[in-house]
Design a protein that fits this description.
By secondary structure, the protein is mainly alpha-helical. The longest helix has about 30 residues. It is globular. It has 5 helices and 2 strands. A hairpin with a 2-residue loop joins strand 1 and strand 2.
Length: about 190
Amino acid sequence: METKTPKKTVKKTTGTATTSQSTRKTPAKKNAAKELKDLFEDSLKDIYWAEKALIKALPTMMKNASDEKLKKGIEKHIAETKGHVERLENCFKALGKKAQAKKCDAMQGLLDEGKSIIEETEPGAVRDAGIIAAAQKVEHYEIATYGTLAAFAKVLKEDECLQNFLHTLNEEKKCDELLTKIADTTLNSKAL
């Protein structure tokens, strides 16, 4: 017989309004991670899917960009992203596992948002500003993911994976900095 956890009602006060919110523990799925190694491998599958999906999405962003610096930055990142996939495959190999992708809902959402921004903006500086905003959201997600994976790899003493994650993390940070520079130096002013 399954026992259900009773719902607790918590009243939250935000400013002048009070809202009610139900809270309860979420039960784990049957195949849920039990150890850090399991969570590490699951996260690896997730980012592997994300990077492969990004390789497919970046050419559309590049084609819809009008600023030459932005186009060149995206083109460079396509090549880097292919390298990220190779490093992830090397990590799977170092773990004695076959490279396997698991759909990453977070990346899917970010890519869908990027597509929507392109559809909802006129070509030119405004669209370019939107492409940069969408691309930076992707970069921030990747920076968070590779930072977390590096921390897990360090604890798990997966040194080859750790070095690969740190290399990729550095590239993701540089890409984010380049996007900021492009936006700050020209594009955002042109989009006024």
